[in-house]
Write a structure and sequence with these properties.
single chain, about 350 residues, alpha/beta, Rossmann fold, Dihydrodipicolinate Reductase, domain 2, six-stranded mixed beta sheet
């Protein structure tokens, strides 16, 4: 098998660091790894697989000779750099919002719609973290029972807002414990010991941008006929997004059959023994790859409806891992090339 030259763009950020860690133990045919970041970080050194790699500035000419770039540098940087990378023969897997809803670029969760990679035009988008874990759980149910409607409420970790938010949660917790003034800079209100029903900006329709992302991305990835409504909430948790899913299907089901589906689903781990206090927890999902599902029960208020609880590490499956799984699919399908 051919060895490829890989690049991580945004290599020193939280997600970029997670990408490096996952790639270090992956079986991808990596001949060389190039690490890119903002100009201020150029020259810094990182140890990877016992080799010292010098970080270079992420600029168009840096992509010459790169086969596949995994990008986690933000939407603005991706809009600028990704087309330039493609011009130089590089395939880009992008973790930002830049190309998710662009009709020419596939939006991919490998467990859900890997076949969409076959028609990529050099840029593949990875979805929003909360969408990823939800659709990994919903895909097998939709295939067998045809999902009509989903009501989702998310309980999202502060790491989804970056390191500054994690630091602020720690600072506010210490201030609370010491009886000091609590200062909020990252969020409009205190996050420690609180819950904020506000992720991203509010739209004219009253939903936040995060809520609309989940609706629009589900339509593009899974099925535009699924009706969905969302409420996204920021919680004082460092890592791990949790979601409450209410699912209505076209076809009738038995709850045990749903549990069996989840137990056998790709990328899912079933934790559903509430009588023994076993159900998915964000603290247990942190640092792990799967989407965890539990609290599966029938919704008696509607026909063919159920509830479940879904948890995953937002920095791994919700970001870094999904992009690397896309890269693995590209390699396995022989698609590491610009058409």
């Amino acid at each position: 098998m051919k060895n490829y030259t890989f690049a991580i763009v945004g290599a020193l950020g939280n997600v970029g660091t997670e990408m490096r860690n996952i790639l270090e133990n992956s079986n991808l045919p990596i001949g060389d790894l190039v690490l890119m970041d903002i100009a201020e970080n150029a020259g810094k050194k990182v140890t990877w697989r016992d080799n010292e790699i010098t970080v270079i500035e992420s600029k168009p000419e840096a992509f010459a000779g790169i086969d596949l770039a995994i990008m986690s540098a933000g939407g603005g940087a991706s809009l600028q750099l990704s087309p330039e990378a493609v011009k130089r023969g590089c395939v880009v897997v992008d973790n930002s919002t830049a190309f998710r809803m662009h009709p020419d670029h596939p939006l991919v969760i490998p467990e859900v719609n890997a076949e969409a990679l076959e028609n990529h035009n050099g840029i593949i988008a990875s979805p929003n973290c909360s969408t990823i874990q939800m659709l990994v759980a919903l895909k097998p149910i939709h295939e067998k029972y045809n999902i009509k409607r989903v009501v989702v409420s998310t309980y999202q970790a502060v790491s989804g807002s970056g390191q500054a938010a994690v630091d602020e949660l720690h600072q506010q917790t210490r201030a609370f414990a010491n009886g000091e003034e609590i200062v909020a800079n990252v969020y409009p209100h205190q996050i420690a010991f609180n819950a904020l029903p506000h992720i991203d900006v509010f739209m004219e329709n009253g939903y936040t941008k995060e809520e609309m992302k989940m609706i629009e991305e589900t339509a593009k990835i899974l099925d535009p006929s699924i009706k969905m409504t969302t409420t996204t909430v920021r919680m004082p948790v460092v890592n791990g997004h949790s979601e409450s899913l209410n699912i209505e299907t076209e076809n009738p089901f038995e709850i045990e059959d749903i549990r069996t589906l989840m137990d056998n689903a790709d990328g899912v781990v079933l934790e559903d023994e509430p009588i023994n206090n076993i159900y998915p927890l964000a603290i247990n999902a942190a640092g792990k790859d799967p989407v965890y599902v539990g609290r599966i029960r029938r919704d008696f208020s509607a026909d063919n409806a159920l509830n479940m609880w879904c948890v995953s590490d937002n920095l791994r499956k919700g970001a870094a891992l999904n992009t690397i799984q896309i890269a693995q699919e590209l390699v396995q399908r022989g698609l590491v090339r610009v058409k």
